[in-house]
Structure formats: structure tokens, C-alpha cells
């Protein structure tokens, strides 16, 4: 690792720390020449295998590009998309895999996208899970509705117990 200040080709590790979720190691390094300190972050490489069999490094940018179309015309900002991509990366890294299918990346996108915007979620899911008929849409919407009702009931029960 070259020193980013003086380009000296060597550095000394003065401190190593594993991130909370265990997916990265932060190292504090010191250059023996100019004595300046800098930090490096080490993460395991994560590859995505595309349907064509081609392997490419995981990228948040690709996740964002993948969902952007589904979010067209919806109240979803670039910041929202950045947060979504970060969530996707975190949940993929927590699986501890070195490699996974593009399909699995898509599955990981579904959860956080649904939290973000249900319409965008339905659009993405319809392409992703290859909805073939109106019934597929109805089933997905029915599921969303049911979960929303359950959530509302849970909240009502909570409010009820708080009153007692
Ligand atoms: Zn240096």
C-alpha cells in the first residue's frame, strides 16, 4: 500500500478494527518515511454472476440503475436510492458470500424497495419475477394489502393496550 501523501511504497499498520457487522476491517497505517497516518478499509470482494455467466464486481451504482426505471414518476429521490443501494449491499455482505447470482441481488432489492415505494416495488417485481398475468399482479397487491392490514391491526392493538 503506497503512502497517499508521499507515495512511499511501504506502510506500517498501527491499529486494526473489525466493523460491527464483521464485513470490513479498518486499518490505521503510518508511513515510515513522512510519518503521516492514513486509514484503509478492507472488504472481501463480492462478485455478481449475471445470467449470461459473466462475473462482475458488485456495484451500488448498478443496483440504483436497476431500480431507477421502476421509480420513474414516483416520489423517490436520489438520496432514497443511495440509501436503498446501501441497504442492499449491507444485507448481501451479511450473507458472507464471495459470489452470488444477479437474481439473488434482485431478490434482496425487493424488501427495501417495498418499504420505499409500493408502486415502484410492484413495477420492479413484475419485471423481476416475470409476472405473466393480471392474476400475478392481483396476488402481489393482495399480499401487500394483507400485510398492511396486519400492521395496522398490530398498531391498533398496541394503542389499545397502552390505553388500559
Ligand atoms: Zn509518506
Automatic annotation (TrEMBL):
It comes from the Bacteria. Its cofactor is Zn(2+). InterPro entries: ATP-cone_dom (IPR005144), NrdR-like_N (IPR055173), RNR_NrdR-like (IPR003796). Pfam families: ATP-cone, Zn_ribbon_NrdR. Residues 46-136 form the ATP-cone domain. The keyword tRNA-binding does not apply. The keyword Acetylation does not apply. Binds 1 zinc ion. A zinc finger (unnamed) spans 3-34. Keywords: ATP-binding, DNA-binding, Metal-binding, Nucleotide-binding, Repressor, Transcription, Transcription regulation, Zinc, Zinc-finger. Belongs to the NrdR family. Negatively regulates transcription of bacterial ribonucleotide reductase nrd genes and operons by binding to NrdR-boxes. This is Transcriptional repressor NrdR. It comes from Populibacterium corticicola.
Amino acid at each position: 500500500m503506497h503512502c497517499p501523501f508521499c507515495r512511499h511504497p511501504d506502510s506500517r499498520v498501527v491499529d486494526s478494527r473489525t466493523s460491527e457487522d464483521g464485513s470490513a476491517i479498518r486499518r490505521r497505517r503510518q508511513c515510515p518515511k513522512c510519518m503521516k497516518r492514513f486509514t484503509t478499509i478492507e472488504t472481501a470482494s463480492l462478485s455478481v454472476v449475471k445470467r449470461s455467466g459473466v462475473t462482475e464486481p458488485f456495484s451500488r451504482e448498478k443496483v440504483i440503475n436497476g431500480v431507477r426505471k421502476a421509480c420513474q414518476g414516483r416520489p423517490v429521490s436520489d438520496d432514497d436510492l443511495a440509501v436503498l443501494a446501501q441497504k442492499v449491499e449491507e444485507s448481501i455482505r451479511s450473507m458472507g458470500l464471495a459470489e452470488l447470482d444477479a437474481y439473488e441481488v434482485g431478490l434482496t432489492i425487493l424488501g427495501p424497495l417495498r418499504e420505499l415505494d409500493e408502486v415502484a416495488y410492484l413495477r420492479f417485481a413484475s419485471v423481476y419475477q416475470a409476472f405473466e398475468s393480471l392474476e400475478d399482479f392481483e396476488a402481489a397487491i393482495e399480499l401487500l394489502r394483507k400485510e398492511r392490514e396486519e400492521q395496522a391491526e398490530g398498531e391498533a392493538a398496541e394503542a389499545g393496550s397502552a390505553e388500559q
